[in-house]
Design brief:
The chain has 2 helices and 11 strands; from the N terminus they run αββββαβββββββ. By secondary structure, it is mostly beta strands. Strands 3, 4, 5, 6, 7, 8, 9, 10 and 11 form a 9-stranded mixed beta sheet that branches.
Length: 176
């Protein structure tokens, strides 16, 4: 026998699920999240983003302080400030079940995971001025009909600092 309490719980769960889903199949609407962060004492402003998708390889996603991420990543710019140029780069191995949510770790190991670093450098500088390796976090995205990707959630913690990147609804363009 099913109790009224069980029926009420199921109905409430269904209503919550319906309220969270998008009937249009579109990414969540609304403004994007924060784009200004301080990481290990360095001010990082996300100006643009881009991604590379190569068959059989992880998707590489970038957020940079540059006006055109795709040009910046391929041309290694000098930077727009005395701080050099900065980027958050993530190698993303999408889950095999077709979902678009991954766990961020220090190293990319399996499908459903991502890893990367925040890097600050001047042109052709090695070692980098600053490199913070990812420690933990989450990344969820939505593939748009125009071939862009909207990062619906991005939360990244880094090794060696308590500073994080925590933002949402950032759209990035394909670079290849």
């Amino acid at each position: 026998m099913i109790s009224c309490r069980s029926i009420a719980a199921v109905a409430c769960s269904a209503l919550l699920l319906a309220a969270c889903s998008s009937s249009s199949g579109a990414p969540p609407s609304g403004p994007s999240g924060p784009t200004n962060f301080v990481l290990d004492g360095v001010t990082f402003h996300i100006s643009s983003g881009g991604f590379f998708r190569n068959v059989g390889a992880p998707i590489t996603m970038y957020l940079t302080d540059q006006v055109d991420t795709c040009a910046a990543v391929t041309a290694i710019p000098k930077g727009v400030s005395p701080q050099g140029w900065m980027r958050l780069e993530l190698a993303v191995s999408p889950p095999t079940d077709g979902t678009t949510n991954v766990v961020i770790l220090p190293a990319l190991l399996l499908p459903g995971q991502a890893a990367g670093a925040f890097i600050q450098q001047f042109e052709d500088q090695t070692p980098y001025l600053l490199q913070l390796t990812t420690l933990s976090g989450n990344l969820s995205w939505f593939a748009n009909p125009d071939a862009t990707i909207t990062m619906t959630e991005l939360k990244v913690a880094f090794q060696g600092t308590s500073d994080t990147v925590d933002t949402y609804n950032l759209t990035i363009v394909p670079c290849n």
